[in-house]
Sequence to fold (92 residues):
Amino acid sequence: MYIRVKRNKSTYFIQFDPTETTLSIKQKLHSIIDQPPSNQRLILLATHDVLDDSKTLANQKVENDAVVALTLRQDDNQFEDVYIAAPEDSPS
Fold:
């Protein structure tokens, strides 16, 4: 199974098992984006719920091909707003 983690113009495809915790997904992202799990917040876009690090993805109703927004902690210790760039209009 996999989820699509999106932030700005980037999309990361992360393979997961439903029994994995959100923290496990953040650790996988850490190896890709060089941001520690404590600086990451994951939000399930279908429900706008912030995913809890200690709960499994199955417990939080994260399903195969789910889209999850990634926000990062800023210098002021607050998390940035969710921003996912829309795809560019393709030329006709």
Observations:
- The first strand starts at residue 2 and ends at 7.
- The beta strands are 2-7, 10-15, 40-44, 49-50, 66-72.
- Residues 22-33 form the longest helix (12 residues).
- Residues 29 and 35 are 8 Å apart (CA to CA).
